Amino acid sequence: MVSINKEKCIGCGSCSATCPDVFEIKDGKAVVKAGADTKKPCVKEAKEICPVDAIK
User: Considering the domain 1-56, what is its CATH architecture?
Assistant: First the structure.
């Protein structure tokens, strides 16, 4: 399971740019899209690129 720590998230958009099928920005914070395939390889990349380590 993939989740976003809303308190850490700064809404920079790096996750949605890296993995747009899974992540999007809503109300200034990242969210996991409903029904998204969170096993895609880009999810790991998005976790690594997040500047505030908000993706778990």
Answer: 2-Layer Sandwich (3.30)
